[in-house]
Amino acid sequence: MANPTFAAIDIGTTKVATIVAEVAAGEIRILGTGVTPSAGLTKGMVDNIHAATETIASSVERAAMASGTTIMSAQVGIGGPHISSMNSRGIVAIADPRHPITQGDVQRALESARIVNVPNNREVIHVVPRYFVVDGQADVIDPVGMFGSRLDVETHVVTASSSAVHNLLQCIRNAGVDHDSLILQPLASAEAVIDREEMDQGVVLVDIGGGTTDIAVYLQGAVVHTAVLPVGGQHFTRDLVIALRVPQMAAELAKRQYGNAIPSFVDEHEEVEIDAFGSAGKKTVQRRYIAEVLQARTEELFEMVAAEVRRGIQQDVLSAGVVLTGGGSSLPGIEYLAEEVLSLPARIGRPHHLSGLSDMLHDPAYATAVGLLRGAVREREIMLRSSPLLPSASLGGLMRKVAQLMRVILPQ
Ligand SMILES: Nc1ncnc2c1ncn2[C@@H]1O[C@H](COP(=O)(O)OP(=O)(O)OP(=O)(O)O)[C@@H](O)[C@H]1O
Ligand SMILES: [Mg+2]
Predict the structure, then answer these.
(1) Which of 138, 161, 184 is the last residue of a domain?
(2) Which residue has its alpha carbon closest to ligand 1 atom 25?
């Protein structure tokens, strides 16, 4: 029998990445990837349905061609500054305390946590259980099978603008793909690059994309805070356009080729020639000046991250520090500036433990796409574990709901 295949689509502000993989001997083997520059997306949100659909369809088609598969459905990421999050507690009574707590009781508790004050133009996209409390006994990871008369669940609830969700889903449908589930981008990135120990000891994931910077804070193995900041790599490039008075393409190239987040890492006498506006069409710039412009924006971004982390938790409990992903984290020296501004250890998060055609995916810009793929694999494993006798084709509807629920309950 052929190995099951999985697909994930990361719809970013600068690129749409589709990955197809199979699981062989417990290992994720990449079969093909399709990457297309984005159109019709601003700050992670669709602003032109037609253009965004074309981009998604082209990325999907490339991945299908590369992998020799047909992509019917995929795990899809969602982001954008319209996302907001809060923590909420659900409480239910157990009808008969002589019987063990069931999956149904857990589902009821989560439904009760889901009842939060959400305006009708927003919708809940995640209710992530952080821990359960059974008759006052706190920090229960999985209450199924335990005895008790009251079940509480502490959750992290993520909401999104309904129109942003529907615009995104419409583009995916128009591109001929069903969405398996919609996952908040920083939760996906974390899945790809953060390990269990870091989540237990406290860590913040910072995904610096093109239009946004996504944040997810983990403590004691569970997510406690998520946020999306409306600043990304495009703002770094725009700063260079203004500071150097050069076209956007030249600024982007200068950032990638000569950029550094720490000016003192760059020789103060080194000069580089870049394309420019004006009669000469070229200009000579001190490389250290490029670094100074980038340092100012990076510092400001990390200060915004620090403020966001403080909104979620006390910063000094994040022993595992900061993990940086997204294309913006490829700026040399950025991890050192993160350590300085946030006063926490920092590292770059690169997706790993992949085989097959995976070379390009070890780049931090693919953390979200790889995390979405891991989510899809885990969802299916849970579905099979919950219902081993079902043929794979019938693993839909209700079973998928159970798997999505279990995925967030069970430790990774
Ligand atoms: N070497 C580099 N130095 C600095 N920035 C870089 C480098 N390489 C890529 N980038 C920046 O990374 C950004 C793209 O990152 P990424 O691919 O993670 O974004 P995205 O997922 O499309 O966007 P978003 O997540 O914001 O919707 C671009 O702004 C690009 O300029
Ligand atoms: Mg992204």
Answers:
(1) 161
(2) 209
